[in-house]
Amino acid sequence: MRVLVAEDERKLADTVARGLRHLGMSVDVCYDGDAALEKALVHDYDVIVLDRDLPEVHGDEVCRRIMTEQRDSRVLMLTAAASIRDRVEGLGIGADDYLTKPFAFAELVARIGALGRRVRPALPPVLDQAGVQLDTARRFASRDGCPLKLAPKEFAVLGVLMRAEGAVVTTEQLLEKAWDEHADPFTNAVRVAVMTLRRKLGSPPLIHTVAGAGYRFGG
């Protein structure tokens, strides 16, 4: 899942981003509404965590612009205002969910996960292909019943490949879905992640290189 955190409290924004990255999400961060609009209209985020009281461009206007552009991103609005009127206003301008500060990180993660599942057609809670099981909720992977110890990026790459259901996934698509905006497209980060993932998956190989195109998962 790719997430944008737009929050002017830098310490809070950075803490949330670190926590989400630890869970395997690709996270971009910005601290004002102008930057939030720029990023939201360029990248295909699954979920945008949007502080309502952003400087430069107010969070309400950011949300309206996202809705006007008909982006597929789901918006989770954050605010210190907890009244029913404030929540109704936030939802009325197009936000998909509304969370008041202070909040528990576990609840934020649960709400992001719920919104992310609404972006695309529902997927089974556990992906199961060619003897590999991937439980994204529990962050658990196994092959033929044997647990796999995967790094967050390896887990994310495996998830993208398995969701493609045998279709070829390009390097650019893996960068877009499993890394954040700071990933250098000219590095070999994808190749290295795929290489270590292949080694951990063992034999017979399940990740196949399609020359000039990308990678495909399957038996």
What does this structure look like?
The chain is of the alpha/beta class. The chain is built from 8 helices and 11 strands. The protein has helices at residues 10-22, 33-40, 59-68, 84-92, 105-119, 152-163, 171-178, 189-201; strands at residues 2-6, 26-30, 47-51, 74-79, 97-100, 126-129, 132-135, 140-143, 146-147, 207-210, 214-217. The strands form 3 sheets. The protein has a 5-stranded parallel β-sheet with strand order 2-1-3-4-5, sandwiched between helices. Strands 6-7-8-9 form a 4-stranded antiparallel β-sheet, with helices on one face. Strands 10-11 form a two-stranded antiparallel sheet. Helix 2 packs parallel to helix 3 and helix 6 packs across helix 8 (189-201). The longest helix has 15 residues, at 105-119. The model has no long low-confidence stretch (mean pLDDT 86).
